Predict the structure.
Amino acid sequence: MQESSSVEMAAGPGYVESRPAVAGQIGWVDRALALQRQGHSREAMAACERALQQDAGDVRAMLAKAFMLQCQGRADEAIQWHERALAHEPHTPLAHQSLGLLWAEKGDHGRAIEHYRRALELAPDDSHTYDHLGISLEALNRHEEAIEAYRKALLLDDGASRTWLHLANALRRAGRTAEAVARYQKALSLRPDWAECWNNMAIALQDAGQTDEAIEAYRKATQCDPQGAEYFNNLGLALQQAGRHAEALEAYGQALRLNDRLPEAHRNMADALKEEGDLPAALAHYRRALLLRPDYYTTWWNLSLAMLLAGRLREGFALHHWRRHPQVPIDTYPHPLRGPRWDGTPFDGKTLLLHCEQGFGDAIQFLRFLPQVKALGGQVVLEVPAGLLRLATGLEGPDRCVPFAEDHPPDEPYDLHASVMDLPALLGTTEATIPQGIPYLRAPEPLVRRWQDRFDPQRFHVGLIWAGNPKHGNDHNRSCDAELMAMLGPVDGVCFWSLQKGPAAAQLERLRGHLPVEDVSESLTDFAETAAVMMHLDLVISVDTAAAHLAGALGRSVWLALPFAPDWRWMLNRDNSPWYPTMRLFRQPERGRWPEVFSAMARRLQQAVSEQRAAAEGSDS
């Protein structure tokens, strides 16, 4: 979202004489100011110089020249003349205020604040200076001090709509959203057709989760300023958040019709097109955004994901490192690691630390590369989340596996380090070179034997998982309601098992109202235990969760229920996965259409059971 905010410049100097005037001098200064107001800058400067020729030490003439230089954008010269004026007359509040504005314009808000505070010591009733002080305090993230400065400005002039807007902005940035909305409304009561204020209030409403109200406020902004491309861009974001994708695309389109050089609109249009499955158009808009703004780090990351979704793995993984940039809002690896990052070259005689990041599913997917890494060098130490530790110890490749700790990096000695999510890029992976050594994870045999008596070999056993981690940013799209699983049965000879963990496990009782389901979830204390159960299942049916990755890595038959806009790794327009050959993909035909997914699974399940039964009867005969 783009927040509109501008800094008002002082209208002009209300200069105070500090010394007796030389005859005719006042006329030259007044003439200079009049010419400046009329837009005759060159003549105004000449008149000002004439005044200074008559008295080189006159403060009023110095301030007039500084003001004119400031209007011409000659900030450094303007600062020099303001400072020269203050050297002659230190108690000139306007000079301090103007210096504050100039230093703020140059980005030195600390120095600006010093001058604003000095100006207020000399003229404590100047509401404009309090307002400018608040702006510089906010620039240094000193939100509470800024709020206090704006409040003081409004005590002096409560009809200053711009200060009400600035106060509202500061309250929003401080997380005080309800108070912010009330101040935006106050500003709008003074100036109802203010597009900038409608826009910023809409941002606050979005922060508060009031998406419908935010959409209406953005629409108000576009009505007040139909040429404001940034307002249409922000409207598109709110519509997209509300699931109104066609309207979002239209809003982004209008933003770009108004301003084709707005990188945010190109990025957002690309995101929306990617969710619609139009990858060629999405890639074009990502590239256009990056041409306009090469340091648009989140867009580099999104371009990476779009390329991976398109199956262009080598190109996508080559850009995958952008996820680590501080401006990209994604949790990667929390600990700083010493020494160089591994570059993919042989490392004989050295120790390489590999660590996991993000979710369990990401870790499971990329552990397949460990044998290739081991073939390039010396010792490999693998750090994994505790839930994967027992399972990872049987993995081919690492010499040692150590558990991840939240509060400190691994204690193991190492020379080089890398994330497992960097391995596809480092190894130049394409779809044709994805390691196909399936299974690459194996359940511990003692655990597999311990579960054996729970599963009747004469029946067809199906494990069910309907929800992922609720903290995942896309969980509302990828997870489904447990009751949808009821569409799978009952099927004669089939036994259903719930492997669901987390808060969504509470939905099991609702599912049991429609479908008999055994529950083993409380015994699944880590992924090794889950793997042992899966070895006794004929089929795992899951939404996009770590359990689906686990089933694929174990070489078990797994059916994956995917939303219309899937995660990058499942690509588009295919029912198989190059990552897991035993996986079959079932996709929503349209956004939110889960029933078609599970009805298709139900038909295929009946067929699979019949095929297994026929095969068993054939072997008996």
Strands lie at 347-355, 377-384, 400-403, 416-419, 460-465, 494-498, 517-519, 539-543, 558-562, 583-587. The two ends are 69 Å apart (CA to CA).
